[in-house]
């Protein structure tokens, strides 16, 4: 991660790390019988909200609700999240359930209904059991707590097929004041964002205008969440929300000055870390697969090439088999739609086990297959392609494609 370590300080926790934010979770029995499946995030002070959402034409009810909240101008105070049922393809009834969930939270928290955001993840096409959702909301309100543990428990409650919870927090100095940004997310399958079945929640005590908060998020997802893929399926529920309550007391960021740049850098660290956690926890996967394309003429060209490699099923299968099948990488670059000269490409594999060049100027070099397999057997593997056309670069993240991916998705509803 390219960042000045002095400026960003990683701290324990996630959504409760910033001042004024509390979280709670409960077992509402929505689909899972043996675990917590609802979470709530609450800010003591009203927040400015920003959001980015799925590009799938089929948008789940909570996505529509949150879009309205973010663009409507009302302050945000709380988020209610459930796992198990996605509330997608549920028609007017599904929209009414978002409203009811928000109303239940507004009542117990003493805040306006329009300041409540909602998010759902899980099976598509089923209606939410509203009695359980409303009971869950009531149960969580008195449990709201600002501890690290409370935030961690919330990050576990929103999981579906994830095998581990995902959270991160950092501190950065803005205008001489310490500001904290924390986040949590879930996502393991149906992940191919232009945002994925991925839900991400970022909280900060920074004082920043709503316009700049939205711009910072919209710009950053291009290099973070939108550069990961597990399976090429763009979900109906993708949502990333950022809430800023200003309680750190830094001079409010209203222009693109050095404080704004520092905030963007910290937000990027949160988003990139969460993105990699999702890609590395892809359904059934055994490895996080990172692809960097450098020497590109434009950033966009680099993004397209890196994304094409990361989504190639053949390349993903080769990574699972620890097989240095470089032809598949070149092939995926070739059909990406981006123009480059294959006879200029240099390709390298690297991991904690070492780094080796596989191709020089489009032709295989004399390398040891055994050594390559060793490098590709680590839990994090990187491929670097230099196309020698300029100085732009981009990185994408994915995972290997395993037998277990098919097993998990063959019986997900049962």
Could you walk me through the main structural features you see in this protein, from its secondary elements to its overall organization?
- This protein has 2 domains: 8-279, L-amino peptidase D-ALA esterase/amidase; 288-410, ArgJ beta chain, C-terminal domain (Ubiquitin-like (UB roll)).
- 32% of the residues lie in helices and 28% in strands.
- The chain has 11 helices and 15 strands.
- The chain has helices at residues 61-72, 91-109, 130-140, 148-157, 210-221, 258-279, 299-311, 313-320, 326-334, 369-375, 403-410, and strands at residues 8-11, 21-26, 38-53, 76-85, 116-123, 166-174, 177-186, 199-204, 239-244, 288-296, 346-351, 354-360, 363-364, 380-386, 392-399.
- β6 and β7 (177-186) form a beta hairpin.
- α1 packs across α2, α2 runs parallel beside α3 and α7 crosses α9 (326-334).
- The longest helix is centred in the middle third of the chain and has 22 residues, at 258-279.
- The radius of gyration is 22 Å and the shape is globular.
- The model has no long low-confidence stretch (mean pLDDT 94).
Short summary:
With 414 residues, this protein is α+β, with helices and mostly antiparallel strands.
């Amino acid at each position: 991660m390219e960042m000045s370590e002095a400026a960003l300080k990683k701290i324990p926790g996630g959504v409760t790390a910033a001042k004024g934010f509390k979280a709670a979770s409960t077992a509402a029995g929505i689909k899972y019988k043996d675990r917590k499946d609802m979470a709530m995030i609450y800010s003591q002070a009203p927040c400015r909200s920003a959001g980015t959402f799925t590009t799938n034409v089929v948008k789940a009810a909570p996505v529509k609700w949150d879009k309205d909240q973010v663009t409507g101008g009302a302050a945000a105070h709380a988020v209610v999240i459930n796992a198990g049922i996605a509330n997608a393809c549920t028609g007017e009834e599904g929209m009414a359930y978002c409203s009811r969930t928000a109303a239940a939270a507004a009542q117990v928290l003493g805040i306006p209904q329009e300041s409540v955001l909602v998010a759902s993840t899980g099976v598509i096409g089923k209606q939410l059991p509203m009695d359980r959702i409303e009971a869950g909301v009531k149960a969580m309100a008195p449990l709201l707590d600002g501890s690290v543990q409370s935030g961690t428990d919330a990050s576990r409650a929103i999981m579906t097929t994830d095998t581990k919870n995902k959270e991160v927090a950092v501190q950065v100095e803005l205008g001489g004041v310490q500001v904290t940004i924390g986040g949590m997310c879930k996502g393991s399958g149906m992940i191919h964002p232009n945002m994925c079945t991925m839900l991400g929640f970022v909280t900060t005590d920074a004082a920043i205008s709503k316009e700049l908060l939205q711009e910072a998020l919209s710009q950053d997802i291009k290099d973070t969440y939108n550069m990961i893929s597990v399976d090429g399926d763009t979900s109906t529920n993708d949502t990333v929300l950022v809430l800023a309550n200003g309680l750190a007391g830094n001079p409010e960021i209203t222009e693109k000055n050095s404080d704004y740049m520092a905030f963007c850098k910290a937000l990027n660290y949160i988003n990139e870390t969460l993105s990699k956690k999702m890609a590395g926890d892809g359904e059934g996967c055994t490895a996080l697969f990172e692809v960097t394309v450098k020497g590109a003429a434009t950033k966009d060209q680099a993004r397209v090439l890196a994304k094409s490699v990361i989504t190639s099923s053949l390349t993903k299968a080769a990574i699972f088999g620890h097989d240095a099948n470089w032809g598949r990488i070149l092939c995926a670059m070739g059909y990406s739609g981006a123009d480059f000269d294959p006879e200029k490409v240099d390709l390298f594999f690297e991991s904690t086990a070492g780094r080796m060049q596989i191709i020089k100027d489009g032709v295989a070099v004399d390398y040891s297959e055994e050594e390559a397999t060793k490098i590709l057997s680590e839990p994090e593997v990187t491929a670097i392609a230099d196309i020698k056309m300029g100085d732009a670069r981009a990185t994408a993240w994915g995972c290997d494609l395993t037998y277990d991916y098919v097993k998990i998705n063959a019986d997900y509803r049962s």
